[in-house]
Amino acid sequence: ETGVTQTPRHLVMGMTNKKSLKCEQHLGHNAMYWYKQSAKKPLELMFVYSLEERVENNSVPSRFSPECPNSSHLFLHLHTLQPEDSALYLCASSQDPTGSGELFFGEGSRLTVL
Amino acid sequence: AQKITQTQPGMFVQEKEAVTLDCTYDTSDQSYGLFWYKQPSSGEMIFLIYQGSYDEQNATEGRYSLNFQKARKSANLVISASQLGDSAMYFCAMREGQWLTGGGNKLTFGTGTQLKVEL
Q1: pLDDT score recorded for residue A1
Q2: Which of A6, A63, B21, B56 is the most exposed place for a label (fewest CB within 10 A)?
């Protein structure tokens, strides 16, 4: 496995379900991110972990709960979501701070909330 | 005000032609970084090119170049010799302020430009 992998790629859930999105990076990076991408809106930064500490929570509702057990793994726990939470959730990693520090993204998890 | 503005929701270009995708930004910081990403239909965001605010030369990476005009706060992406595989969404993004250890590289993105390359 190389790069950043996200599972599942597609997820359909009801408003009362609990599910989790998983992200794993194989790049040896020390920072990981969750972004939300909704149609016709800019990518929204949700959470940032650097050196396994959460350094950013961008006013995200508590129904989204991140977890970073180590520098290679990042989870997004979902519960009692709303239909407007349907979006593409992108995970990324970077080496903090090195060079330009570009983010390496996964292919995303497409979430549909019914 | 938006931090990153991409005014072209869609662009068409003929194969082998050059195309410029516009990006303007808004920041009061002296130190910042500008990025361009490509997002094909698969969903993955692919890093293309980076320009630091103190870099005097325009960045280039293969067929990609960044036309950085600091006074105008613009960072346009130029793709030379377009190929069919260049058809995708293109996003401009910015990191504001100094990048400190442990702070993460927090990027703000624009709304993107959908580029279609035609035969």
Answers
A1: 59
A2: B56
